[in-house]
């Protein structure tokens, strides 16, 4: 995607040929800053502190983290240490383990002296795979938006999304936003209701930033406005992303997604989840019971960062001093509230039968 006419991915190898550069998402939307990662510790810190976020991008960053580790020390011991350190950064997103396992398999096939080169090649392959996967998700989701548009000719298609599942959450294109970008580029009148997505405001800061730079009509709304919009017929469909999807179609996404799904179900609004195959955890069957839910710092709830009237970026306390806060990063939406899953292979029901119809190699 483009920022001020320049094409960017969210992660890339720097001009020196070995260090890795990322967009610091903690500074958006008010500052566009690029960070250089030079060690595996740098990559782990970027993931943990959410300079990068979104399941696919977390996986890509971890892959390059292993590259940086093996460049310094290609031994089995160094590989194991870096793997464990990076795997521990974010527990909910399964893409992290997928990428680390792919990297470990790739470098395990070559001698120590060739490991760094093999690692960089595999990380680049994983990034390219993610871009193509997201492009196909966009094409499959576009058909759904086009169907809504054809049912209300000449009118705008209103899509509600929660959190950020655009290109900033992936290497490029995004998952939930890819169909919206393609619809906009195809000339379909589309408007996005952007949940602010407390407590880190990924919707208000990142999704709105993306959509605005691409020229997509959008409106930021408080998190609790979704049900009201649906009651009044102002939402045609919901599209969200997911950080982990069970083999039976349950999805874990940013906290608050479950409430949107309940409101959509109560108001007969289609609720779609867009995901790459790397987000499916085929070992799990009960998302509520089995998906680990990350608990983050209470400071994300009690404090907020933004731009003051004088242009300075400041962090302020917004809660009553001394009050405790609980900060679960994700919740689980059971499959029964999901209208369909939008994948790179097509759209299916949120069920084991639906998923295995697209991924028959996973039957049994």
From TrEMBL:
UniProt keyword annotation of Isomerase present: yes
InterPro entries to which the protein is assigned, alphabetical: IF-2B-related, IF-M1Pi, IF_2B-like_C, Initiation_fac_2B_a/b/d, M1Pi_N, NagB/RpiA_transferase-like
Tree of life domain: Bacteria
Residues reported to bind substrate: 53-55, 90, 202, 253-254
Site description Transition state stabilizer, residues in chain: 163
The keyword Acyltransferase appears for this protein: no
Keywords: Amino-acid biosynthesis, Isomerase, Methionine biosynthesis
Record-listed E.C. numbers: 5.3.1.23
A Pfam family matched in the record: IF-2B
Pathways involved: Amino-acid biosynthesis; L-methionine biosynthesis via salvage pathway; L-methionine from S-methyl-5-thio-alpha-D-ribose 1-phosphate: step 1/6
Catalytic residue positions: 243 (proton donor)
UniProt GO molecular function: S-methyl-5-thioribose-1-phosphate isomerase activity
GO annotation, biological process: L-methionine salvage from methylthioadenosine
Catalytic function, reaction form: 5-(methylsulfanyl)-alpha-D-ribose 1-phosphate = 5-(methylsulfanyl)-D-ribulose 1-phosphate
Function of the protein: Catalyzes the interconversion of methylthioribose-1-phosphate (MTR-1-P) into methylthioribulose-1-phosphate (MTRu-1-P).
PANTHER family: METHYLTHIORIBOSE-1-PHOSPHATE ISOMERASE
Family in the record: Belongs to the EIF-2B alpha/beta/delta subunits family. MtnA subfamily.
HAMAP family registered for this protein in UniProt: Salvage_MtnA (MF_01678)
Protein name: Methylthioribose-1-phosphate isomerase
């Amino acid at each position: 995607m483009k920022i001020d006419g320049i094409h960017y991915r969210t992660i890339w190898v720097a001009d020196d040929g070995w260090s890795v550069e990322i967009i610091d998402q903690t500074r958006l939307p008010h500052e566009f800053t690029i960070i250089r990662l030079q060690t595996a510790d740098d990559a782990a810190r970027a993931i943990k502190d959410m300079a990068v976020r979104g399941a696919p991008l977390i996986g890509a960053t971890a892959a390059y983290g292993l590259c940086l580790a093996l460049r310094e020390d290609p031994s089995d011991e160094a590989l194991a240490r870096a793997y464990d350190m990076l795997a521990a950064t974010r527990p909910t997103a399964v893409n992290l383990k997928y990428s680390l396992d792919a990297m470990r398999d790739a470098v395990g096939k070559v001698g120590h002296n060739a490991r760094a080169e093999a690692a960089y090649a595999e990380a680049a392959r994983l990034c390219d795979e993610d871009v193509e996967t997201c492009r196909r998700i966009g094409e499959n989701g576009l058909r759904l938006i086009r169907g809504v548009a054809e049912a209300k000719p000449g009118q705008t298609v209103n899509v509600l999304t929660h959190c950020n599942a655009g290109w900033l959450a992936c290497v490029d294109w995004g998952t939930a936003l890819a169909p919206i970008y393609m619809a906009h580029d195809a000339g379909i009148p589309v408007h996005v209701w952007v949940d602010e997505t407390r407590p880190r405001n990924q919707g208000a800061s990142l999704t709105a930033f993306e959509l605005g730079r691409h020229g997509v009509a959008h409106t930021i709304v408080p998190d609790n406005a979704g049900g009201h919009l649906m009651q009044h017929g102002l939402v045609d469909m919901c599209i969200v992303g997911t950080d982990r999807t069970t083999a039976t179609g349950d999805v874990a996404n940013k906290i608050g997604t479950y409430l949107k799904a309940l409101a959509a179900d109560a108001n007969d609004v289609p609720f779609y989840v867009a995901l790459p195959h790397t987000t499916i955890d085929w070992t799990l069957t009960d998302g509520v019971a089995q998906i680990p839910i990350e608990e983050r710092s209470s400071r994300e709830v009690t404090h907020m960062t933004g731009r003051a009237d004088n242009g300075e970026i400041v962090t302020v306390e917004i809660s009553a001093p001394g009050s405790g806060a609980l900060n679960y990063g994700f919740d689980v939406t059971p499959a029964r509230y999901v209208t369909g899953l939008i994948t790179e292979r097509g759209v299916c029901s949120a069920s084991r039968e639906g998923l295995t119809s697209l991924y028959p190699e996973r039957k049994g």
